[in-house]
Structures are given as structure tokens and as C-alpha cells.
Amino acid sequence: MPVSQVVLECSVLLDKLHKLDQNHLQRSLLVRHEEASAQVQRQIVVRRRVELHKIFTEELEEATRMGEMERNVANDLQHDYFTCQEQLEEVLDVFLATHRSVLGERHAQRQFLVHSLQSLKSLICEVFAKTSGQVESWFQELRR
Predict the structure, then answer these.
(1) 77-95 burial code (b ≥16 CB/10 A, e <16)
(2) Which InterPro entries does the entry link to (predicted)?
């Protein structure tokens, strides 16, 4: 193989490697960004939930103070409110756990597919190399 062809092949391989590195870095940064965004969203949701609880409790206390509602009714409402909130959070926790599980399963399937394709590529390369060698030796025998 001429030196210029080897240099060209190395240059092409280096370009491919650089593109793969860039893609990997880009995916990594995207994942970090998504995680940070999810964390910020979670903090916002928690803050809003705390504010909502505070407003709900204050409104019940105000209604009780003004005589618009009896204390036991306010307590029952508050108990029902927090019970519903707990149930909702449990459902959301199950949903998130299921979602994470599905995403993990998909990731594992992709990894398996990539590994399988790489193995297949290696096998095909080996078969071509052996076949090429056999064809070359067969042509040499025919020439003799």
C-alpha cells in the first residue's frame, strides 16, 4: 500500500474519530443539561407545592377565624387535602419509577444492539479477510 494512501486512510480515520468524540461529548452535555433542567423543575414544583399548602392552610384558618367554617370541618378538609396529595405523590412516584425502568430497558436494548452489530461487523471483516486470502491463493495456484 503506497504511503500516500496510508496517510489518506489515517486522515479519514482521524476525522471519523473526531466526529465520534464530538457526538459523544454533545450527548454527554445534553444529558447533563436535561438532568440540571429536571432538578430545577423539581425545585420549582416543590416550592409551588409548599406555597399551595400554605395558602390552603391559611384560607382554612381564616375561614375558621371568621366563623365561616367550623374547626372540625376545616380539620377534615385539611386531612382530606393532604391525603389526596399523598396519594397523588405515590402515583407520580410509581409513574416515574416505571418511566425510568422503561428508559433503562431501552438503553440496555440499544447497548445490546450496538454490541451485536459490532460483533457482526467483526465477523464479516474476518470472513472477508479469510475469503480474500483464499481467493488470492486460488488465483496464484491458477497462474502456476
Answers:
(1) eeeeeeeeeeeeeeeeeee
(2) Limbin, Limbin/EVC
pLDDT in tens, 5-19: 777 777 887 888 888
Smallest CA-to-CA distance from 34 within 103, 101, 98 is with 103
The set of cell numbers assigned to 128 is: 472477508
Q: For position 23, what pLDDT does the model report?
A: 85
- Kindly report, residue by residue over 43-66, the tens digit of the pLDDT: 998 899 999 999 999 999 999 999
Cell 494512501 maps to which residue? 5
Residues contacting 70, CB < 8 A, separation 6+: 64
What percent of the chain is helix, strand and coil (3-state, nearest 5)? 95, 0, 5
